[in-house]
Amino acid sequence: MNKKQLSEHIGNMDDRLVQQAEQIPFYAALHRQKRIRHLLTAAAVFTLMVSSFSIGALAFAREIVVEVPAAQESVTLEDIGLTLSLPEDWKGCYEVIEDTFVPYNSPMWEFCVKPIYDAQTPADESGELFYRGTLFYLFQYTDASMSAEEFEQSGIAGIGRYLFSTEHATYVIMYATDVQYDPSNKDQERLYQKMMSEIGEIRFTVNNILENHTDGATFDD
């Protein structure tokens, strides 16, 4: 799925999604309960760390700090407070293209295979389009808070995945569904297929989770 197809697909969302978003319950009480549970967990983790002299994850009231190996490749999307811990062998092999998701005038990030994107190999005879090596897009799907269950009822659940939501937005990852590399270039094909197969190794960390978000701080793809 290229950027044009993505825009058209999202643009075809029906009124059902809007109605679902308007009926989402108030989560303030749930937020307070989660904040208490997180603080108790943080205290227990800190005590264990002090007693064993090990380095671990420290949880504070306003920030989650997750231990990441020194060699771990990571990208932080500051606008939404999301960090992606990538496979180690992705270093130097990916490109992050920031764009705008027009429906909400919000940031959208396109993760591409760098050697394919840099090659600018034409994808059509006009040369106006080229193989971008797109692995996935990450963007704000709606301007309302949705649960994972509600997202599963949406039109893109089959090609996208729910990440997290805030009080006023829901963020998702959508995978590329069309050919993103030059089929005649075997090196591009091998690299793209390898990186696509490793997307499941990506780990996501949402910063300031206790104050701003409704879901867990870290989760697996």
Tell me briefly what this model is.
This protein has 221 residues and is of the alpha+beta class.
Features:
221 residues; alpha+beta; 5-stranded antiparallel sheet; 4-stranded antiparallel sheet; 7 helices; 26% strand; globular; disordered C terminus
Explain this structure.
- The protein has helices spanning about 5-10, 15-20, 30-50, 115-120, 150, 185-195, 210, and strands at about 60, 65, 75, 80-85, 95-100, 105-115, 135-140, 160-165, 170-175, 205, 220.
- The radius of gyration is 19 Å and the shape is globular.
- The protein is about 30% helix and about 25% strand.
- Strands 5-6-7-9-8 form a 5-stranded antiparallel sheet. A 4-stranded antiparallel sheet has the order 3-4-10-11, with no helix packed on it.
The assigned structural class equals alpha+beta
The radius of gyration is 19 Å
Q: How is the main sheet built?
A: 5 strands, antiparallel
Give the tally of structural domains: 1
Strand order of the largest sheet: 5-6-7-9-8
Mean pLDDT: 74
Q: Outline, from the CA principal axes?
A: globular
